[in-house]
Amino acid sequence: MKVMKFGGTSVGKPERMFQVRDLISRDNEPTIVVLSALSGTTNALVAIGDAMSSGNKTKAEELIDHLHAHYKTFLAELLKSDRIRSKALGIIQEHFDFLRIILRISFNDALNKDILAQGELMSTKMFSCYLEELGQSHVLLPALDFMSIDANDEPQVADIRLKLNKLLEQHKGVQTFITQGYICRNAKGEVDNLKRGGSDYSASLIAAAINASVCEIWTDIDGMHNNDPRVVAVTRPVEHLSFDEAAELAYFGAKILHPASIWPAQQFKIPVKLLNTMQPEAKGTVILEHADSDGVKAVAAKDGIVMVKIKSSRMLLAYGFLRKIFEVFEKYRTPIDMITTSEVAVSVTIDSITHLDAISKELAPLGELEIISNQTIIAVVGNRLTHEGGLLQKLFTSLADLQVNMVSYGGSLHNISILVPTEHKNAALKSLNKGIFGLD
Ligand code: ASP
Ligand code: MG
Questions:
Q1: pLDDT more than 70, % of the chain
Q2: Ranges of each domain in the chain
Q3: In angstroms, what is the span from residue 335 Cα to ligand 1's centroid?
Q4: CATH top-level class for 2-220?
Q5: Nearest Cα residue to 30 out of 149, 176, 142
């Protein structure tokens, strides 16, 4: 059995849904199809929730009406038969009635999660109606019946496995299952979600739960690229990555895959393929346990980084100094991405400034603090990088004319991280494209 996940743009137009149907019918392997909401929908639902939470009911109502109209037009193009179309319109009507009811009751965070769940609920039901119209047998599996997170928002892998396999047993012989990405139940049993972009995570958790032969992530580009195509002129897809390499790239800015979606597949050794709905024959990227070769595979950039520098002569020959610093970040649940040290100073980077004021206050007694914002981490990702002779020379030559604030080398065999001011990011990515990959 395999998993095929289609993102928002892959279901965002009726003709894309036609294509999805072709793609899921190409072979005879039983498949669980995981769908995102139609593109733009989750953003619209976020805006509806925001309007409600700020008490702007008129704005919320306008947004609901606008989204509803979009769905009606979509269905008119998606479905030919009057019977199925009016069935689908009725289903969609129920979801919009629900949104309008929420408008009238007092708003809270749990209701907001209900609002956000409507996108995936609608896209899967619409796709199911389309398959019904074509007479293609399938079963709609409600994600809310098996996908769950605990009180720390972590997926309950064992539980998901148990529940999903039980559900599948009730449908022996079925070739096609459809389910929602992104949505789940939380520890209180309420509707919740796996955070923005979380449909990839759903797909990977489902693939792990059923020991799928492969987890295919279908998007609108042909796999991970060696550099950011929005910044450099020429990029090429990376055909093969290990899970470790893919995890670094996903975390450090390759938008194609949700970073959390790596670990379930990695733990259960499920191959992941990144494929392009618009170009199904393109090879895309295959992610497997082991790397196929050494050396740099790609560079990626992560913006919005803040550098925190702590300098203290008391650090000289002292032990326990680093622990005190890390405890402050731990207390405020703020992850550190990079760290570099000298004998009297430590620099770390964080990507969340939510608790920066409180962190600064607690760090102040430890030494002189410097906070430098608007930084970007450039991650150079590949396999056995510290074994590659001449790599550092290439990196430093490429970056010779730019300001570099931190370099983290040797923490992993898969990543060399370089911190530059964000204003130098594009220049850095461009010269690395030439210096490392020989591309413009
Ligand atoms: N629809 C959700 C979002 O836009 C989940 C996803 O597409 O992965 O964030
Ligand atoms: Mg997505």
A1: 100
A2: 2-220, 297-437
A3: 23
A4: alpha beta
A5: 176
